[in-house]
Design brief:
Length: 490
């Protein structure tokens, strides 16, 4: 299964707390009340399907069911022919995985489609099967549109909402991160499963669009309804980050850690956000300690693209700030080698590149670049290939030039593609900002006036896009550094 949205290897043991994750999952009648019908007659199968969705959306493992793997087994034991269970499992196994490295679920999905053309599926199942096939073909744009179409017919379908939303995040459709949850929120009331979570998704989309006050209201509403919703915690962390309030963000995450750490399959990312607040505030030793205590061990244990991007990004950000990170990148780079031919997201490939270079593993970085060229010229298709073909090679070449100290050459590679890169690759503004930071540092270190002016323009554009009156602490610190260099040179 893809570790992009869910990591089944995370520790399923949770601390005791007065607030618990939901345990009353919907049976056939419950799903029907929310407008969804299944072809199965097994109440237990659809209950386990609901339990899987709760674990995926709230990012935790239900220990009593054996976590995600155990719940899946229970679901299929209840009805080995449960169509929606197979569609869900096979679709998720295909998503964000390489067809060449992971062909089995794709073959099973083809066989499943061939044997279910007799009208035995419900409309809900048929529409999700179409989306799953698109995922298997790496057609993320088509799958996103299909999931949105499902929401039009089934507005309280948590799977369609989850997938439409995360596919929008995956392909850089920032505006949809607000529009998708906004399109269904009117159908939810406090008694509806995932009522608060819809507001958590809305919070994130509003924050990415610069609607910080509205986003904070939505996020607080989500947590008032269900304090263990760590996507809502995460969305508010983004709000504080993008609105230039790192101190409030750090205090918020510290004070609510008991709740969001229970979401064990996503907490590494919120620890990463906590460390980012320390970086914003110039508290570099605290950020490095968080890497050593939390981010590093958790991301290395998991080993997936998404967790590794957190660990690598934090180290790179500290490196750019002049912090001695020692040999910490070596362990991260050793895990990235396993993904040198995945090519499921250019966002991850960029992290792979600078982490390999941080670790001094030029051979791995060269192999990544060679594999990328082969991927672009190969027979795979889909959104990521289209983006990689346009900006992937210049990104990795620019990162390589920067790490080699060839700053002017780095600028010449990165500057022409940075705008399209920021618009089209996977990730939030905070995540993708690492590539912009590399370009900024290259521009100033090049010593060329034109590149110095470019850095000023980038910072001014960033301020304008953020809809803020003043720079974030990190950008202001960089601007102050530029002023000092200018005064020295002048």
């Amino acid at each position: 299964m893809s570790k992009t949205l869910y990591s089944p290897d995370a520790d399923p043991v949770m601390d005791q707390t007065s607030i618990t994750f939901p345990a009353n999952w919907r049976d056939l009648a419950g799903w029907k009340a929310d407008g969804v019908k299944f072809s199965t007659t097994s109440n237990e199968a659809v209950k386990m399907y609901d339990a899987l969705l709760h674990q995926a959306i709230y990012h935790y493992n239900e220990a009593q069911l054996g976590g995600f793997p155990g719940t899946t087994k229970n679901m299929m034991n209840a009805d080995p022919d449960f169509a929606m269970g197979q569609i869900f499992s096979l679709g998720m196994d295909c998503f964000a995985t390489s067809p060449k490295k992971n062909p089995e679920p794709r073959m099973k999905l083809i066989d499943f489609s061939a044997t279910h053309k007799n009208g035995s599926l419900t409309k809900y199942e048929e529409e999700h099967l179409k989306a799953a096939v698109m995922l298997s073909n790496e057609d993320y744009w088509g799958a996103m549109i299909q999931f949105q179409s499902i929401l039009e017919s089934f507005p309280k379908d948590p799977l369609a909402l989850q997938m439409a939303y995360f596919l929008a995040l995956t392909i850089g459709q920032t505006k949809r991160l607000k529009d998708i949850p906004a399109s269904v929120v009117k159908y939810y009331d406090p008694s509806t499963p995932f009522y608060g979570h819809v507001y958590g998704k809305l919070c994130f989309g509003q924050g990415e669009g610069g609607e910080y006050e509205a986003g904070e209201i939505s996020g607080r509403k989500a947590l008032d309804h269900f304090p263990l919703d760590n996507w809502a915690h995460h969305a508010l962390a983004h709000n504080f980050e993008e609105s230039g309030r790192p101190l409030q963000g750090r205090l918020f995450l510290t004070n609510s850690a008991r709740d969001w750490t229970l979401g064990t399959t996503f907490s590494h990312h919120i620890w990463w956000h906590t460390a980012l607040f320390h970086v914003q505030l110039g508290e570099f030793e605290a950020a490095l300690s968080l890497y050593d205590d939390k981010v590093g061990p958790m991301t290395l244990k998991d080993g997936g693209n998404f967790p590794l991007s957190d660990g690598s990004s934090l180290l790179m950000r500290l490196h750019l700030e002049g912090v001695d990170i020692g040999d910490r990148a070596t362990a991260q780079a050793s895990k990235w080698v396993n993904h040198n031919d995945d090519f499921v997201s250019l966002f991850y490939d960029g992290h792979n590149s600078f982490c390999s270079m941080l670790a001094g593993d030029r051979a791995a970085n060269s192999k990544l670049l060679d594999n990328m060229r082969e991927y672009v010229n190969g027979d795979r298709s889909g959104w990521n290939k289209e983006v990689t073909a346009k900006v992937g090679v210049p990104l990795v070449e620019g990162i390589t030039k920067y790490m080699d100290g060839e700053y002017s050459e780095a600028v010449s590679k990165l500057a022409p593609v940075m705008s399209e890169l920021q618009e089209k690759i996977q990730g939030s503004k905070a995540q993708k900002d690492i590539f912009r930071q590399i370009l900024l540092h290259a521009a100033v270190k090049s010593g060329e006036k034109s590149n110095f002016d470019l850095a000023s323009d980038i910072l001014n554009q960033s301020l304008s896009n953020s809809k803020l009156e003043k720079h974030t602490p990190l950008n202001q610190r960089f601007l102050d550094r530029m002023i000092r260099i200018h005064e020295t040179q002048g």
